[in-house]
Structures are given as structure tokens and as C-alpha cells.
Amino acid sequence: EAKNHPDPNECLGLMEFVEPGDLQKYGIIPELVGRLPVSVHLSELDEAALVRILKEPRNALVKQYEKMFELEDIRLTFDSEAILSIARKTLERSTGARGLRSIIESVMRDIMFELPSRNDVNEVVITRECVESGAQPLLVLHQEGRALEA
What we know:
Layout: H1 8-14, H2 20-26, H3 30-34, H4 47-55, H5 61-70, E1 75-78, H6 80-93, H7 99-114, E2 121-126, H8 128-133, E3 138-141, E4 147-149
Parallel strand pairs: 1-2
Antiparallel strand pairs: 2-3, 3-4
């Protein structure tokens, strides 16, 4: 006998209307429900939201790394495809905004260790390949101004 199951997407839309009494009917004890001053429904972040989180806030991750490199007199650039790849990888892992840092850390680990011992690097460019396949970032050197791979 086939049962009618509600569409999960329809149920997600209903979550924004949940009230404390609904939580009690679901089985959460009133003492716990009473300790929740506010109940809020959060939607899953999409790719565009993750990209905005990476770039837009005053203390955005990309800006933090750019500032760290600036302290070494090196310009750091994330190309737009690299930013998208970071967001996509975060979605694949289902780690949300908190997962962005671990992905950037894995991309940046080697270059952050290597750069302080070099004085010929003017700019580091993080590309899609760096994020997706672990390729080395593109390095722009001071003296000749030409791009070389690390």
C-alpha cells in the first residue's frame, strides 16, 4: 500500500512558522522550550551566499588572507573561479560557512610556509586549479614582472 509522503521542500517552507507549542507537540519538554528565547528557521546556504561570505564582510576570509600577505609586502589575489571553487567544495562537504576556512587553509598552507623565506615574490594568484587539484599558486616575481609557477 503506497503512502503519501509530503514533499521535503514543502516541509522546509513550513519551518519558518514553527511556534513553541509546536516544539512541545513534537516531543520537546516544556522546560527546554521555555529556555529557548527565540526560535529561528535557517535556510541552507547556497553558492552565491558562500561567495558573499568569502568576499563581502569587513572581516571576510579573503580580506584576512590579503591583509596577512600585505604584511609581507606581497599582494594576494583570488581569481573569481577560485572563489567559486571554494564555495562549491564547501557545498559538496556540507560544512556551511564554517567549512570555508578549512578549504582556504588547505590551499594556502604550503605557500604561507614558503613565502617568508623568499624576497622575490610580488604577487600570489590563487586559481581554480589550486583549489580543485592542489596545483601551486601563480607567483609574480619582482625583478622581471613575469609570472612563474612555484
